[in-house]
């Protein structure tokens, strides 16, 4: 995801790839190098305790982690994302794949890692994001392969 964003970002943009897993970061670094992208900043950290100053990012993204995080960790992560976004900043999260085979594999993965709270979140993601962000919605990507949850940081504190 980070590599795809870096390929499309304006030259002056700062793109940061963050993951709790050193292994996933290593895979991201290797993929970015192979694509010739060397300006990405890579950070190993917990999304529920982001190591960034408040109000510094225009956009934050998340790929499937909302479903893997358990209740309080997911809530802390959403609050942390809102904290680091500028007023009016956007949060975009990839949702469960729409293609049947990918969707099945996604749910098998949830069963393996533990689906505590994931099923409830799948039915109430708009409501949960709405507790932290305004203008929350869900869109199907033009390719039809995935859905994106989106929200905006309110301009008021």
Distance between the termini: 30 Å
Average pLDDT across residues?
Answer: 85
Total domain count: 2
Shape: globular
Give the helix proportion (percent range).
40-55%
Unreliable spans are none
Characterize the largest beta sheet: strand count, sense, and whether it forms a barrel. 4 strands, mixed
Total of DSSP H or I helical runs spanning 4+ residues: 6
Can you name the CATH architecture of the largest domain? 3-Layer(aba) Sandwich
Give the SSE order as H and E letters. Answer: HEHEEHHEHHEE
Give me the CATH fold name of the largest domain.
Answer: Rossmann fold
Order of strands in the sheet with most strands:
3-4-6-5
> β content, as a range?
15-25%
Structural class: alpha/beta
Set down the secondary structure blueprint.
Elements lengths: L1 H7 L7 E4 L2 H13 L6 E4 L12 E7 L1 H4 L2 H14 E10 L5 H14 L4 H13 L3 E7 L6 E6 L5
Parallel strand pairs: 1-2, 3-4
Antiparallel strand pairs: 4-6, 5-6
């Amino acid at each position: 995801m980070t590599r795809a964003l870096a390929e499309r970002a304006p030259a002056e943009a700062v793109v940061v790839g963050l993951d709790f897993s050193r292994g996933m970061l290593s895979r991201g670094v290797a993929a970015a190098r192979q694509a010739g992208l060397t300006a990405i900043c890579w950070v190993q950290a917990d999304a529920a305790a982001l190591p960034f100053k408040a109000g510094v990012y225009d956009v934050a993204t998340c790929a499937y982690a909302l479903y893997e995080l358990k209740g309080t960790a997911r809530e802390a992560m959403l609050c942390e994302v809102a904290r680091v976004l500028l007023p009016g900043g956007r949060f975009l999260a990839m949702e469960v794949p729409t293609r049947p085979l990918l969707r099945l594999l996604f749910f098998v993965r949830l069963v393996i890692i533990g689906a505590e709270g994931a099923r409830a979140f799948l039915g109430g993601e708009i409501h949960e994001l709405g507790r932290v962000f305004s203008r929350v919605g869900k869109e199907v990507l033009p390719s039809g392969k995935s859905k994106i949850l989106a929200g905006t940081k309110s301009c008021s504190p």
